[in-house]
Design a protein that fits this description.
The structure holds two protein chains of two kinds. By secondary structure, chain A is an alpha/beta fold. Chain A has one domain: Rossmann fold (3-Layer(aba) Sandwich). Chain A has nine helices and seven strands, in the order βαβαβαβαβααβαβαα. In chain A, strand 6, helix 7 and strand 7 form a beta-alpha-beta unit. The radius of gyration of chain A is 16 Å and the shape is globular. The N and C termini of chain A lie close together (9 Å). Chains A and B meet through helix 2, helix 3 and helix 4 of A and helix 1 of B.
């Protein structure tokens, strides 16, 4: 399966989701390729840190691709890996579009903030354009870095559910420090000790949903 | 066994493989995306979302921050380090 963690808003947690899914999928024995298609190269930094920590036993293969190479190389790699997870930057770039042209699924995390949910229509438009050449692309929205309390989560969900042709995943990932702490060590949140049970449950729910597509 | 059944679903990938799509159309879709460098529109959006604050920091503290940054395996800009510190402080205050 080729999965893109994308969207057009920065800071929504795409890299955190992409790296955690890659770590978890690899831990289950699948041959995973993590593609960093974001010019910030954070997923690559994560893998460098992970390799340092694990003696080059990250568990998955990582590569950095941009622009049209995302499409051509991912297509080439698709027979060699059971799953390819592509992390894209928070903008509508050629790299992201290249990824979407060959992807099976687009995962778009949203923060429960107006500036974030205001990008919903532009993401839907982008998906519409890509579907003209890749009809099998499925798109999933979900709430990430959600608030512990308050009305903002519910308000954002109401907007995210309302987009035609895009599925809303009823999995809410909270704003939890464990994700950042784990990432700084090159670990997935499920590997981090002391374990944050809620963070683990949330990312596991997303993982199960994603890989049951 | 029922004599009348639902019409079988077609394979969603049937006929939709990008390899078979017109290369020029694919390229047109891809080329609508921006390049890696920020567009002027994005710079404008960033300008609206971020406010510059002139922070006066004692040199001693800055030196300490820089030495902590150097200890990190992954190079962290001073700006990023300060933002991390601010976020941690906000989170602590909220949890009180």
């Amino acid at each position: 399966m080729i999965i893109v963690c994308g969207g057009i808003k920065g800071g929504s947690g795409k890299t955190t989701v992409a790296t955690n899914l890659a770590v978890m999928r690899a831990a289950e024995g699948y041959d995973v390729l993590l593609v960093d298609a974001d010019d910030q190269e954070t997923a690559t930094d994560f893998t460098i840190q992970r390799n340092l920590r694990t003696n080059d036993q990250a568990g998955y293969t990582s590569t950095k691709l941009t622009d049209d190479a995302v499409r051509t190389q991912v297509k080439r790699f698709s027979n060699k890996y059971s799953d390819i997870i592509i992390d894209t930057g928070g903008r509508d770039t050629r790299s992201q579009r290249s990824a979407l042209v060959v992807a099976d699924a687009l995962l778009v995390p949203f923060l429960p903030r107006s500036f974030d949910v205001w990008t919903v229509e532009k993401v839907a438009q982008l998906v519409g354009e890509v579907r003209a050449v890749n009809e099998r692309l499925k798109t999933y929205f979900f709430l990430n870095r959600a608030d512990a309390s308050g009305q903002d989560n519910a308000d954002a969900v109401e907007i995210l559910r309302d987009i035609e042709g895009i599925e809303f995943i009823d999995v809410v990932i909270g704003s939890r420090k464990a994700f950042g702490k784990a990432a700084s060590l090159g670990l997935g949140v499920t590997e981090y000790k002391p374990q944050d049970a809620k963070a683990c449950d949330e990312i596991t729910s997303l993982y199960r949903y994603v890989f049951s597509f | 066994m029922a004599a009348v059944t639902r019409k079988p679903k077609r394979d969603s990938q049937e006929g939709n493989n990008p390899v078979e799509s017109d290369e020029a159309v694919i390229k047109a879709v891809v080329d609508k995306g921006g390049s890696v460098a920020k567009s002027s529109a994005q710079v404008e959006v960033d300008r609206q979302a971020v406010q510059v604050v002139n922070l006066r920091v004692p040199v001693e503290i800055l030196n300490e921050i820089d030495s902590l940054r150097k200890e990190r395996r992954i190079k962290t800009p001073r700006h990023t380090w300060l933002l991390e510190a601010i976020e941690e402080k906000i989170e602590r205050e909220h949890s009180l």
